[in-house]
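Intended use. Records like the one below are meant for learning the mapping from a protein sequence to its folded structure. Do not use them to infer anything beyond what is encoded.
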Amino acid sequence: MGESRFIGRRSDLESIQQHIYHCLTDQPRIVLVEGMAGIGKTRFLEEVHTIASRQGMAVTSGASDEIRSVPYRAFAELLPRMEARDVLENHEVTRLYQLFGVSSPIAPTPTLDVQTQDHVQTLMSVSGGVIRLAEEQALLVVVENLHAMDPASLALFSHLAFALVEHRTTPILLIGSYRPVAPESAVGRLLQRLQSEEITHTLELSGFDEADTRELLQQLGVIRPTAQLVQAIHTTTRGMPLFIQEAVHHAERTGALTMQGGYLAIRPGVMADLQFPPDISDTITARMNGLPAACIDVLSIAALIGEVIPEDRRMLLGQDITTEVALEVTIRHGILRLVGEEYQFTHSLIRQALVSRLSIPQRQRIHANIALALERHDTGNQTVPVLEIATHLIEAGELADKSTLFSYAREAGNQAYGRFAWGEAARFFEAAIRASDFPSVQAPLHQQAGLAHYRNQDAGPSLEQFEQAMNYYQTIGDTSGLALSLMWIVRTRLTHDSTIGVLPTHMEELEAALEMLGTSEHQLRGHIMTVLSQTYRFARQLDRAMEFADAALTLGQHINDDRLCAQAAQALGLAHMSNLQVEHAIVGWQNSLRHAQIADDIMLQRLAITNLPLALNMQGSLEESEQAALEGATLTKTLHEWSQHSQALSHLASIAAAKGQFQEVEQYTRDTMTMVQRSGYPWGGFRALGALAGACTVRGLWAEAHLALDTMSTPGKCFTTPGRIVEVFARVFRQMALGYEGRYLTEQLIPLCDELMEVATTDTYSLAPLCAMIELAEITLMPEVVERPATLLKEAWDRGIVFTSGWSFRVSV
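Structure written out for the chain above:
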C-alpha cells in the first residue's frame, strides 16, 4: 500500500495542511494522530511526508518497535542529520553518540544525582539541535507507535514536544501516532498533558466510507466490485484498510468471489465466515499457512529481527537462492516490501501474527541462531551490537551459553544505563545475575539493577534488588558495598514509601554501616550523611537532620567535593527551613548554590534557586526574593522541570501579593496553574491560589476570591484529591474573605479553629491560615480564639518570619 495511490481522508489532510501553513510562518504545531491497528496511520503519514516535502519542509521519521524495545529507534534519523548540518557543539555530539549507541558509555556510578544531570543535558542537546535544524529549513518530525514506545524514547519525545510548546517561534511540525491507550498509562498521561497545550491538536483517523472502500478494492485488483460486495466488506471490516485488504485475500483464497454480469460479487454466506473485526490475526495466520515452507522460515527469522531488516542484517535471513526466491514471494503477497536496501513488514500486525504462530522452543532456537550469527559477523569498523546480541541471548532461554550471556548482558546493562534506558538496563543486569553463580559478582549487579529500577521510578523492584545486594555484600564481608546498598534502600523508601514523622526501615543498619566505613571512604560517607539528614528531616527529627547535614558539609569541604557540599548544604537549608530558621536556611541554600555553580551542576543549582525565594520572602527581603524566583523560573523552564517551575512561579505570585502588585499576582497564578496541569504537582498551585485569593479579597473582588478558593479545594482542579489539611485551610480562607466582605460567616469560628489547630504546624503552609484565624477573631470580636494560633505564630516571629507565603500576611506579635 505504501507505493499505491493515496485514498480518501481529504478532511484529515486539509487539517494537516493548515498546520503546515502555520509551521511555515514559524508557528510550531504538535499533532497527535490516533487510530486503531489497521486503520492506515502509517500510510496517512507517508502522504503527509510527501505533502510536506513538496512545500519545502525537511522530513525526519521513525517508529518504535512494537515487539522488541529498542531505545531511541524512533529518533535514529536525527543524529546524522544534525551532524551533517553542523548544528551541534562538540560536547553535544559526544553526548548524542552515547545516546544513540554510536559510542559505548561508562558503567553506572554510585553517586546520587550525576546521572540525572547528564540525562537532562542530553535531552536538551537533542531538542536544541532539532530547533536549530528548523532554523535553516522548516522541519516535519514524524514519530510512530507512541503506544509501544519505551520509557527512554518517550522521555525524549516529551522533552521535544514541550520544547516546542515553550519555544513558540520555530517552524517544526511534530506528529506522533498511536493506538488508543489507557489514560493511566505513561503514554496516556503524557497525551493528556500535551492535549491541554495550545499548540497541540488531535486527529482521530476513522475507517473508510463505502466510496473509499470501493476505491481500495479496485486498487487491490477487484476492478469491478458490485455494490453488494462493497457494502458487505465495508460493513464487516468497518472500513479499516488493512482489514479490507485481508478480506480480499481471504475471499480470493477461498474462492468466494464470482462474476455476475461482468462485475465481481461475493458468494452468499461467505462474509459471515470473515470475522473482521475485532481479530484479524487468525486471518493473517491463515494467509501465512498458504505460503511455501521456505517463505515461512525466512519470515519467522525476519519477525524476530524487527519491523525493519536493514542491509547489514540481511545475512541473518540466509544467503542462498532459496532465500532470494522466498523474499520475492513475500513481497508479491504484500507481507514484506523493499524500501531502498532494507526489507520492511507492510504492517506490524503481520509481524505479530508471525511471532504468535511460533512455539516458545521455536522462538528460542531462532533467537539463539541470530545471536550466534551476529556474534560471528564481521562488523568491520562498526561497534559490536552488544544490546542486540544480549536481547537475542535472553530470548533464547536455556539455549544460550551462560558465560556468553553473562558477558553480553552485563555490558548491555552498562550501555543501556549510560543511554538512560533504565528499564532495559535493569533487564540486562538481571539476566547477567541469573547467568552468574558467584556472590562477589552478583552483589554489584544487584546494586546496578536496583539503580536502574530506581531511575525508572519503579520502587518495588528497586528495593528488591538493593536488598539482594545488601544480603550478598553481607555474605562476602564487603563493608562499602553494604553501606552503599543500605543508603539506596533508605533513599528509595524516603522517595516512594515514607510517612511524615516516621523513620523508614534500615535506618539503624545504615548508621551502623556508616560507623564501620573507613576514613578513606569520604564521598560515600558524605552521601550517606546527606541521605540520613533528609530522612530525619522528613521524620521531623530536625536536630538529627541538621547534625548529619552539617557533618556532610564539613566532610565535603575537607575533600574539596563541591557536588557533595552542594547536596549537604541543600539538606541543611531544608532542615533549618522546616524549623522556620529562615536566616540559617538562606545561608544554607546560598552556600549550596555557590558550590553547585562551581561544580557546574545545573540540577543542584535548580534545587537551591527554587528554595531560596521562599525563605527570602518570609524574611521580608522581597526584592532579593523576587530576583531569586525569576532566576529559578528561568532555569526550571530551561530544564523542563515543570513541578519546580510551578513552585518558582508561585513564589513570584506570593511576592507580588506582598508588594501589592495585583496584576502580576493574577498573571503568575495563571502561569502557575498551567504548570500544575502540566506537571501534576499541586503545591505551587496552592500557594499561588492563596496569594490570588488574598489579593482579590483586599481589592474587594469577592467573587474572584471565592473562585480562587474553589479552584484550591475542588477535586481535580489543583489537587486530584485535596486532603484534610487543604480542605481546612481553604475553609479558613473562605471565612476570611466573607469577613472582609462584611457578610455573615458560614461556619462557627471556635470549631473551625479547633480543626485548624489539629492540622497546623510550624511549617510554611500553615502560617497564613493561622494569621487568617487571628484576623477572623478580631473581626468577630472573639479574643478567646487568638491564643492558640498566636502561640505558633510567635515561634515564627521569634525565628525571623516577617511575611507569610501564599495569602500574604505580615506577621507581628
